[in-house]
Design a protein that fits this description.
- The strands form seven sheets. A four-stranded antiparallel sheet has the order 2-11-8-9, covered by helices on one side. The chain has a four-stranded mixed sheet with strand order 6-3-10-7.
- The protein is an alpha+beta fold and about 400 residues long.
- The longest helix has about 40 residues, at about 155-190.
- The protein has helices spanning about 55-60, 110-115, 120-125, 140-145, 155-190, 240-245, 260-265, 315-320, 325-335, 345, 355-395, and strands at about 1-5, 10-15, 30-35, 40, 45, 50, 65, 70-75, 80-85, 90-95, 100-105, 150, 205, 215-220, 235-240, 255, 270, 275, 285, 295, 300-305, 350-355.
- The chain contains eleven helices and 22 strands.
- It folds into two domains: about 1-150, Adenine-n6-DNA-methyltransferase TaqI, Chain A, domain 2; about 205-355, DNA methylase specificity domains (Adenine-n6-DNA-methyltransferase TaqI, Chain A, domain 2, Alpha-Beta Complex), CATH 3.90.220.
C-alpha cells in the first residue's frame, strides 16, 4: 500500500493573499470564486456566487481550480473538508482559505482521496496539527505532511465507487426530507394564497383576539425573576432563542427545579404553543413540540397560546412565517431599539388573517401527516448514515 506524500505526483496550491484578491475585485459575472462555504464533505455546493473579471483571473492564474481538482478547506469545524470540483463547473479561482489539490490520475483516484480526507481517520491526524479554537485552521506546510494510504489504483476506484453509491442513497433520502417544507409551503399557498394579498378576502383580526386568554400572549420572565444561579442540570426544561431558531431540534442544557418552575408557571410552555423570538432574530416562530414536557421560556422569547376554537398552531405558524405583512408589522414594533426587541403589548395588536377554522384544521392535518412521514424518513436516514459511516470505517481499515 502506497502513500500520497511529499515527492509523489500531485500539486498543492492555496488561494491568493488578501492583498491580491480583495472584495473590491468581486464582480457579478466572469470567473467564479471558490469560498470555504462552498465546500461540503464530498460535495461542492456553491452558495452566493461571486466572480472576478477574466483580466483579474489571468493575474491569479496560479490559483486556478479546474474540474477534477480537489478543493479542501483550510479552516472550519472541522478543517480540511474536501470535495471534487465537478465537471459541471467552469474554471475558477480559489480563495486564501482553500487548498487546491491536483492529483495525477495514474497514481491516485480523486474520489478516493477526497473520501479519505473526510474520514474519521484523516480528521484524527489533521487534529494533531490544527491550531485555533474559535476558527480551527491548518497551514499548507503542515497539510503536506499528511500521509494518505494508497492501495493499488483499481482498489481505490472500487472503494470510492462503493462509498459513492452509499452516499448517494443517503443524500437522496435527505433531499426527500428537505422537500417536506417546500411541499407544505406550496399547500399553504394553494389553500390560503399569499397572506399579504389576501385574495380570498379572509377577515383580518388582531392577534390577541385568537389568544386562549388575556395571558395567551406573554414574554418570558424578567431577569430579576430568574437568575443564572438557579439553572439546574435536570428538571423542568428552559428554552430560548437558539431552540426556537432550530425548531426545537437542539436540546437544552438548562433546567429549573419543580419549585422554581411552579413559581414561574405564568411563563410556561406546553405542546402546541407558538414560541417567537423577541430579540436577535426577531419574529422567528416555532411550535412547541407535542411530545415535549411542559417547560419555561427565557426572557428573550414570547409565547402565543391560541384559542383552539379560533385558530390552529400550524396554520398560524406558517402564516407568521410567510406573511410579509405580518413581518413588516413585527419589524415596525422592534425598529429603533438599541437592541431589537418586540413590545408585547403592541404585538397583541398586529393584524393577521383568520380563514374558517375547518380550513385551518385541514391544513394542520396535512402538516401532521407529513410530520409522520418525515419521522419515518428520518429513521431511515439515520440507518443509512450509520451504514455509510460503517463502510467508511471498514474501507480505510482495509476491510471492505
Amino acid at each position: 500500500m502506497g502513500e500520497l506524500a511529499a515527492g509523489t505526483p500531485y500539486s498543492l496550491v492555496i488561494g491568493p493573499f488578501g492583498s491580491d484578491l480583495k472584495t473590491s475585485d468581486y464582480t457579478d459575472q466572469g470567473v467564479p470564486i471558490v469560498f470555504v462555504r462552498d465546500v461540503q464533505p464530498g460535495r461542492y455546493a456553491p452558495k452566493t456566487r461571486k466572480y472576478v473579471s477574466e483580466r483579474k483571473a489571468k493575474k491569479l492564474a496560479p490559483h486556478t481550480v479546474r474540474p477534477g481538482d480537489l478543493v479542501i478547506t483550510k479552516m472550519g469545524l472541522p478543517p480540511c473538508v474536501a470535495a471534487v470540483y465537478p465537471d459541471s463547473q467552469p474554471v475558477g479561482i480559489v480563495t486564501a482559505d482553500i487548498i487546491k489539490m491536483a492529483i495525477d490520475s495514474t497514481t491516485a483516484d480523486r474520489e478516493y482521496v477526497g473520501r479519505y480526507l473526510n474520514s474519521p481517520f484523516a480528521k484524527r491526524e489533521i487534529a494533531r496539527f490544527t491550531f485555533g479554537v474559535t476558527r480551527p485552521k491548518v497551514t499548507l506546510r503542515e497539510f503536506k505532511e499528511l500521509q494518505i494510504p494508497l492501495p493499488p489504483l483499481p482498489e481505490q476506484k472500487r472503494i470510492a465507487a462503493i462509498l459513492d453509491k452509499a452516499d448517494a442513497v443517503r443524500r437522496k433520502r435527505q433531499r426527500a426530507i428537505d422537500l417536506t417544507e417546500e411541499f407544505l409551503r406550496s399547500v399553504f399557498l394553494d389553500m390560503f394564497g399569499m397572506p399579504a394579498f389576501n385574495k380570498q378576502k379572509f377577515p383580518r383580526v388582531a392577534l390577541h383576539e385568537i389568544a386562549a386568554n388575556g395571558d395567551g400572549i406573554k414574554c418570558g420572565p424578567f431577569g430579576t425573576q430568574l437568575a443564572k444561579s438557579e439553572y439546574q442540570r435536570t428538571g423542568v426544561p428552559l428554552w430560548g432563542i437558539k431552540h426556537v431558531n432550530s425548531h426545537f431540534s437542539k436540546a437544552t442544557d438548562e433546567f429549573l427545579t419543580e419549585q422554581k418552575a411552579n413559581a414561574l408557571a405564568p411563563y410556561s410552555l406546553v405542546p402546541g404553543d407558538l414560541v417567537m423570538t423577541r430579540k436577535g432574530t426577531v419574529g422567528n416562530c416555532s411550535i412547541y413540540p407535542r411530545d415535549f414536557p411542559s417547560g419555561i421560556m427565557h426572557s428573550d422569547v414570547l409565547r402565543v397560546r391560541l384559542n383552539p376554537k379560533k385558530s390552529t398552531p400550524h396554520f398560524m405558524s406558517w402564516q407568521l412565517s410567510l406573511s410579509q405583512d405580518a413581518a413588516h408589522q413585527i419589524s415596525l414594533l422592534s425598529h429603533g431599539a438599541i437592541m431589537a426587541g418586540i413590545n408585547v403589548t403592541k404585538l397583541k395588536a398586529i393584524e393577521i388573517l383568520l380563514p374558517p377554522l375547518p380550513m385551518q384544521q385541514q391544513f394542520d392535518a396535512i402538516v401532521a401527516k407529513q410530520a409522520e412521514l418525515a419521522r419515518l424518513q428520518e429513521a431511515k436516514s439515520t440507518a443509512e448514515s450509520d451504514l455509510f459511516n460503517s463502510l467508511v470505517q471498514r474501507a480505510f481499515r482495509g476491510e471492505l
